Structures are given as structure tokens and as C-alpha cells.
Automatic annotation (TrEMBL):
Keywords: ATP-binding, Cytoplasm, Disulfide bond, Methyltransferase, Nucleotide-binding, RNA-binding, Transferase, tRNA processing, tRNA-binding. ATP binds at residues 26, 119. It comes from the Bacteria. This is tRNA-specific 2-thiouridylase MnmA. Disulfide bonds join 95-192.
Amino acid sequence: MSGGVDSAVAAARAAEAGHDVTGIHLALSRNPASYRSGARGCCTIEDSNDARRAADVIGIPFYVWDLSERFHEDVVEDFMDEYAAGRTPNPCLRCNEKIKFAAVLDRALALGFDAVATGHYAQLRPGADGLIEMHRAVDHGKDQSYVLGVLDQHQLAHSLFPLGDTTKDVVRQEAAARGLLVADKPDSHDICFVADGDNAGWLREKLGDRAPNHGGAIVDDATGEELGRHTGTYGFTIGQRKGLRIGTPAADGKPRFVLDIEPVTGTVTVGPHERLAVSRLSAIKPRWCGTVPRRLEGTVQLRAHGGEHRAVVATGDGAVEIELLDPAYGIAPGQAAVIYDGSRVVGSATIASTSTGTS
């Protein structure tokens, strides 16, 4: 129970369905005093209190589990390492993979529970092959199957998503009818461990001497001309337009975008938007929800709130090759490519490189 409306209603529905439910809130900060106030994240002290009050209204036991050390190692450190290496990670996927459906699930099963239920918007269905399938939520605007694409069959078999067949408006109405004070609480957003939402500032403070460079050149893709200097590659991501602080305008007057990040030399390359187009992706560290496909004509989603791209996916030797039938723009190494067959989530992999060719 994060302290938001979704997990509160999910807990209430699970209890009403006859399950023996216990509410768990995760303490993920090693220094609780550093938690921000307000409803920007999902694990503040205020959120903990909101979750406890919701559990009281539902009439279920409630506990706080301290997973701060595991969270720091598996999510926060991974986030810093990836940015220091010039990649763009998604910490919410890593949290689901390593914390909510690994550390929490392992402890829950050891204590005799059968499953972990959350307020994520996704649907689980039995497949024709006897495996558990994960599908997009009914409310496509709130669908969270992208950040759940890291879950394997064992994890899916011990998961419940009570809200997958419901729209967000209905969830809020239901929360109000149940007397849950979080009915009108704003949705969480931003990265929960970045206090003010300033990712670049947070990385600059935390990385310090760990960064492979303390600055470098911002160069033009076409001419190689140095356009400016920066204080660390971790302040940039592929496709970024704002905050480049380049004094010289492009010859054609059009905006420039980050095209490439080289963390070893500290070089950030910028150029026109059309140079961001990619048609092939090579990905590593695949996670499959069920049977591993050899070749699949389906779709991929490349951002948590992005659209689907028609694609042909091929696998082999632990690698995933993705041919995009329509180009995508501003795709960065480190992002997750989540693979779909219709509404069914097939699995996910971490993008290692991109290219524009088809050969």
C-alpha cells in the first residue's frame, strides 16, 4: 500500500473478495527525514500515514517493511551507474523487478502468503498453454503493463492486479464510497527518490567523483564544431532539447537535440530532430513473461507513457533484435523495450544500441 488511491482500492477489493489481506507499506529511504512532503512520490512519510489510515478503514492489519538497503543497492545505485555510463534507465521497472515482485514477494511467500496484490493497472488471464498471461489494462490511459514487463512466470503466478478491469474515474468514485480519504489524492509522479524532481541536479550531487568525467564538449553532429561545455554527461539524455545552454543557433534556425552521449570522453553530440530517427534496436538482459519467442511480429513500447511501434522481434543467445516498421525518435540506450502480441505482454529487454539501417 503506497498511500495512494489505487493501492487502497486494490486492498479493499481483495479483502471484499474474501482474501486474507495484510497491508504492507515499503520504507525505501535510508534517511526518512529526507522524504519530500506533498504527493509527488509514492513512499513519503505522509504516504505511509495515508496507507495506515486506509488499512484502518478497510479493517486489515498493516505493517511497514524496511527495504531501504535493498532499494538503494538495486534501484538507486543502478540508476546512478546507468546515467554515469551515458544510458537512460527506468527505475520504476527496476523497482518492480527487484523490490515489489522479488524482495517483497519472497518475504511474503516465506511468511505463508500466496500473492502480492498491487494497485497497478494491468490484467492477468490464464493462457491456452496453461501459463499466466499479462495484458494491458482496460483503461489504456492508465495502463502500467510497460513497467511490469520485467515480471516472469513465477512472479505473475503470485501476483494480483485488482484494478486492471477498471478506469481511474471509477476507482476514485469507489474510494469515496468506501470512505477512503485518499479518494482525491493526486497521482504520484516523478522518481520517488529525487526530492524535487530535478534529476540532473540530483545526479550531479550524488555522483560527484564517481562520474567518469567532470565535463566535456557539446559538439555539432554535422560540423564537429564545439558549441559549448557541460559539467557532466549525466545531465543529458538522448532526444533532450531543453537545457543544452548552447549560445550559437543552428544554421537553419531549427532547434538542436542530443543525438549521442560519450561518457568516457565527455562528448555530447547535438543535431537536428530527423537525426534522432531509429529503425533497429539491439537489446540485452531480456525478461520473458512466458514462453520465449524466436520471432514475433507485434509491437514494442519504448517509454512508460509512449505509444506502440509496429515491430518484428527476433531472439537468440540472450539478445533481442528489434526491427521497427515505423521509425521511433529519441530512443536512448538503457531504456526498456517492452514487447507485445496484441494486448499481451511478451516480455522486455534493455536497449543496448540503436541504428537507422535495416541490414
